[in-house]
Amino acid sequence: MKIDLLKKADINPSIQNQISDLFKQLGGNKKQVPLNELLDANNPITISYCSTDNKIIGIALMCTYKVISGKKGWIEDVVVDSTHRGKGIGRKMMNKLLEVGKEKGLSEILLFTEDHRTPAIKLYSDLGFTLKNSKIYTKKS
Q: Taking 80 as the threshold, does the pLDDT of residue 31 lie above it?
């Protein structure tokens, strides 16, 4: 099992398809942006992944940005293939993102999860994330 960061040079049709299949496991009607657009030099994103036997079995993404209150990170799209869950893969990918956050000097890392994702909530709590007293609003364009 290997945990690493995905680079633009790593992208090929097989990798794109494997990640697309994982992304679908998040559920809903979310549309996936092509990886080469995500890993553009102008888009500050880090993709942590787990692979075994040359197959990607987990991904976790963190975008970084600067605002008046500091340098921040936002973690999204954390998913481990359903046949590999419960093996600590999500924790390892998250730790990789937290290392990147530390290297970048982020003042805060945020994430959102849904109430029914109890294993994810336990993982995030174990990693030191706490529930903010706030609401998230969205407007689709």
A: yes
